[in-house]
Design brief:
CATH superfamily of the largest domain: Chloramphenicol acetyltransferase-like domain
Structural class: alpha+beta
CATH topology of the largest domain: Chloramphenicol Acetyltransferase
Shape: globular
Radius of gyration: 21 Å
Keywords: Acyltransferase, Transferase
CATH class of the largest domain: Alpha Beta
Distance between the termini: 40 Å
Order of helices and strands: EEHEHEEEHHEEHHHHEHHEEHHEEEEH
Strand order of the largest sheet: 1-6-7-8-3-13
Helix content: 25-40%
Number of helices: 13
Pfam families: Transferase
Largest sheet: 6 strands, mixed
GO molecular function, one term: acyltransferase activity, transferring groups other than amino-acyl groups
CATH architecture of the largest domain: 2-Layer Sandwich
Length: about 450
């Protein structure tokens, strides 16, 4: 997306080159279409996911692009579905067309430090540093060189092809190949072969559930829903990034832990975010508020999926509570929230495929302004993405498009967690004033 924002770092952005990067595969045997599972088609109704990595110490654009393109071709050979596109049929399938993915090179005037070091998101600027995704395609990449030095690496992907765990596995492999000088790694270096066969997900009603999801979420499939209203609403939100240090997290978990149980880092942080958000929104005590997060089902299925499975395998989890239950004093609200999350996680562990036909209900009837939606995970080591010029100075989810949308990833410092959130401008400062009162 070639655009310009008000930030002087990006007064002018121009795309200088657009190429297609294809997998470097040796076999000439045509790949059969890859049939998607209900875990995949569950995401038919959402916009593509956009991510941005900023590298203040990266080399000039031309040399970096050469390394990125050659290593991307090799990485796509292992993660082949990303180079395909949705099949033009009623079946939810990926077709391996051989056209590869769009790779854009762009130039920006100014200093990357102006956006790499600011906790406040300049959303329009961020959006200009990630590419658009053409209809039916599954991945696109844009690398932007700054006149003052440094690179922005933006990518967009369809959630139909991969969940967060899978896409960061691809990015890690791409970075490792690039760091190694664009040489295909041996199996010992690269780990086990990537497995993307959806038939490994054992569910007798899987096909009928997939059809149900398609009819519910994209009745005109293979035409996908447009998301104009979401983008228009997103432009009115403010976004900010916070970091919880390891000491912050220890303190939070200590507050959250009752005499009967201990809580995980994820549960403690998400509960704290939930409470802080509803405080910023000044909800009435009797208002119902909803927390939504994803639970990885790879190890919870019977039989479990192999660790190197590439695709989608997360369930959307929903926790409801009265606002008054969450803002009780003396730490009781935090303990209540933690127990509610733990109960939902326990149920997923016992029966990850419970009430499959109702999974799409989450996309309708949500109370406006009373939802906290958590994406990604503190387990995603996004700051380890070193392409040969050091770790990124900043990594962000650009597609924070909903009121109350939160992204969690591991922070730059050991043991820290990065929290990014989108809220209306009138609420973001209140959230900031409360968030670090741990």
């Amino acid at each position: 997306m070639a655009a310009s924002g008000e930030n002087p770092a990006l007064d002018r952005i121009r795309v200088t080159n657009l190429t297609r990067v294809c997998p470097k595969i040796t076999s000439t045997t045509p790949q059969p279409n890859l049939k998607l599972s209900f875990f995949d088609v569950l995401w038919l109704g959402i916009p593509p996911i956009t991510r941005l990595l900023l590298y203040p110490s990266a080399p000039p654009l031309r040399s970096a692009s050469h390394s990125l393109i050659s290593s991307l071709s090799l990485a796509l050979s292992r993660f082949l579905p990303l180079s395909g596109r949705l099949a033009a049929s009623d079946e939810a399938e990926i077709a391996f067309s051989g056209d590869g993915i769009a790779f854009s090179e762009a130039e920006a005037e100014g200093d990357i430090g102006q956006i790499a070091n600011d906790d406040v998101h300049d959303w329009e600027v961020f959006r200009s540093l990630v590419p658009d995704l053409e209809a039916g395609e599954l991945l696109a990449v844009q690398v932007t060189g700054f006149a003052g030095g440094g690179l922005a690496l933006g990518f967009v992907f369809s959630h139909l092809a991969a969940d967060g765990r899978s896409i960061w596995s691809f990015m890690e492999t791409w970075a490792e190949i690039c760091r190694a000088g664009g040489v295909m790694m041996t199996p010992e270096m690269a780990g086990a072969t990537v497995e993307f066969d959806r038939s490994l997900i054992v569910c007798p009603s899987g096909d009928s559930i997939s059809r149900h999801f398609i009819n519910r979420l994209a009745p005109s499939y293979p035409l996908l829903p447009r998301h104009t209203s979401i983008i228009e609403a997103a432009a009115k939100l403010s976004r900010r990034t916070f970091v919880l240090t390891s000491d912050n997290i220890k303190s939070l978990k200590k507050r959250a832990t009752s005499t009967a149980t201990t809580v995980s880092t994820f549960v403690a942080i998400v509960s704290h975010i939930w409470i802080t958000t509803i405080q910023a929104k000044k909800l009435n005590h009797e208002d119902t508020t909803i927390l939504i997060f994803n639970a990885d089902c790879r190890d919870r299925l019977q039989p479990p999926l192999v660790p190197n499975f590439f695709g989608n395998c997360v369930k959307i989890c929903i926790v409801e509570a009265m606002s008054g239950e969450l803002i009780k004093g003396g730490g009781h609200g935090l303990s209540f929230a933690c127990m509610a999350l733990q109960e939902e996680i326990r149920k997923v562990g016992e029966n990850p495929l419970e009430e499959l036909e109702r999974w799409t209900d989450v996309f309708s009837g949500l109370p406006e302004g009373r939802v906290v939606l958590v994406s990604a995970s503190p387990r995603f080591r996004v700051y380890d993405m070193d392409f040969g010029w050091g770790r990124p100075g900043r990594v962000e989810l650009v597609s924070l498009t909903l009121d109350g949308h939160v992204a969690l990833v591991e922070g730059k410092e050991e043991g820290s967690v990065q929290v990014s959130i989108a809220l209306p401008p009138s609420q973001i400062d209140i959230f900031a004033s409360l968030f670090h009162l741990i």
